Amino acid sequence: MRSAVALFGALLGVLFGALLGAVVPALVALPAAAAESDTVTWSVRPGDENGEDGRAWVEWAGDPGRSRTEHMVVTNHGDDAVTFRLSSADGYFTDTGRFTMLASDQESVAAGTWIDLPESVTVPAGAAEVVPFTVSVPDDAEPGDHPAGVAASVHSTGTGEVAVESRVGFRVMTRVLGALAPSAGLTASASYTGAVNPFEAGEVEVGYELENTGNTRLSAWPEVSVSGPFGLGERTARGAKILEIGPGETRSGTVRFANAWPLGAYDVGVVARPLPVSDELAFGPVEPASARTTALALPWSQLLVLTLAALLATWSVWRRRRERRRTAELVARVRQEALAEAAAVRHHHS
Amino acid sequence: MNEKSLMLRGCAVVFGATLLASAGSAAMADDEHGTQSVGVDVEIEPRTVPGVLAMTVESSSTTLAEGESTDLERVFRGTLPKVTVTDTRAAEDIPDGAFWYVMGTASDFHDEHGGNAIGASHLGWSPQLVAGEGEGEPFVEVGGDVAPSRPGLADQELLYLAESADANAAGGTFSAVANLELAVPADVAAGSYSSTITLSLFE
User: Fold this and answer.
1) Is residue A205 part of a domain?
2) Based on the domain organization, do A132 and A247 belong to the same domain?
3) Burial level of A313, CB count in 10 A (0-12/13-18/19+)?
4) Is A3 on the interface with B (CB under 8 A)?
5) How large is the average pLDDT for residues A245-250?
6) Does A259 touch chain B (CB under 8 A)?
7) Residue B33: closest CA among chain A residues belongs to which residue?
8) Of A298, A129, A172, which is closest to residue A229 (Cα–Cα)?
9) For residue A217, which of A145, A274, B26, B51 is within the disulfide window of CB 3.0 to 4.6 Å?
């Protein structure tokens, strides 16, 4: 019976999914193609004096006061010569772990100011230009990782309200040698959601925030564990892997444990060990960051069901007792009447 | 007396039926998972010319036209010019752990003459892949829709390569467009506002 219902449900699901799959692509309405306008196609890669050298970004380590010359290769794949504006800015990682650099209307205050780059470069059609630039570490630079980026950009023409500045670039990661102090801090919060249906289990949701409190880039893979009283229902799960987080940045994540019965209270612990981002920039083992919290998980719907059952049982017992008493009374009364009648008849006869 | 007995029995029946239904629905809620596998064959010719990772943009700016404004809110819509990323590199030319992405950030809207400004968080977008240029490919994705309210269009993904080792082996041309939406309160000062969206391709 159960399998038949499940099979029917699955069939319905497949039908619905096929229908959706056929309908959705048609529904994705594409905006009308813009009138043919000039396009610019270009790429920007790190390199040396001779051209691209296969790197995707620049990573180097130096003492305060050192400087290094790198090269930026700008290749114009289009049909017209283009003048690109070159820019350097502070780099940072977004919430989703993507590296990006400050937009041109924002001022750089950190590693973006260490880079000395020409203002612009004109590249003929189909050709590449190698642009040298220098990264100079100030004498008073803090030890640790300092992200920055360089890019070649084009600005849209025309008088529309929304201009578009498009840029292609790469990151320039400078590690200033000195006392590297990798460390991280964790905070966590947890909550339990019970199911209305007393036969269904609820869910524990754990949110955590990892902050890079050291001066190096870190990666981490937080581990969350929950356990009920006396270690009942203990489970562990990993949060999303954090591939790269810069000094001072915070990353948050959530882990959900389904099928959790309301055992009163859940003990929640989150642990994350800071790890180096790559083998070249390794550091020794670091104390893991941890956080503990509790989530109350009271069995409301189960208690409600039990209370209702108890009430009904009590009611039924009370009723039966009252009925029994009434029946006994009735019997007693009938017997008395019968006795009285019998006595009256006897009296009558005598 | 009869009514009371009926009520008790009725309550007990309802209670029992509800319990039964709950137990039944919990038991039937087992998920049925299925997997499908699709065989894919591809013939990759050896490369003679080193591949590139390049971005193509159209050189024009875009205009926002007023849409269905209400008494409380004025809505303007436009389209971001098409952005195309071409990746023709061989898998071995791509450094380990490298994958490209295009991010977008909007600046505040400034009115040159009036000196007023509209915050960048009032601008939102909804990116889409372009048919034939990445749509339907599993390893290239567009960012999610951004609503024209806080935090708005700040460091949001437009188009990116899903992070997997197989993804890097697939080169190609991928394009995205995005519908722009600007929503401002109805009492905003009139004027000619302009803003700049910065699109960045990094790896």
Assistant:
1) yes
2) no
3) exposed
4) no
5) 86
6) no
7) A10
8) A298
9) A145
